[in-house]
Amino acid sequence: xxxxxxxxYGKYVEGAEQLSxxxxxxxxxxxxxxxxxxxxxxxxxxxxxxxxxxWGVAGAILNVYIAYKKNxxxxxxxxxxxxxxxxxxxxxxxxxxxxxxxxxxxxDGGGGGDA
Length: 115
Description:
single chain, mainly alpha, 66% helix
């Protein structure tokens, strides 16, 4: 298999990787809630439940941060790729990322005036 070809199930693997971020967030919060509930039951302090909830939310945020850093690293690897050089030069010259916001009131028929 050459470098240009993707594996047969490549789309599914990429989708599962993104799905795993959502699942890991839910699992982190549930683990924190469970840990907080156990500590509250064992030690008898009600605030320990909220400490567990805080730990779970913090774990979920950490999971998002790790996924963000991973995506930034993979995009930085593509920054100098020859396939994207033309896109970089076109988007940087227009100043707005290549988007046309139609601020010139063009004649595309989508205006907001009365007919």
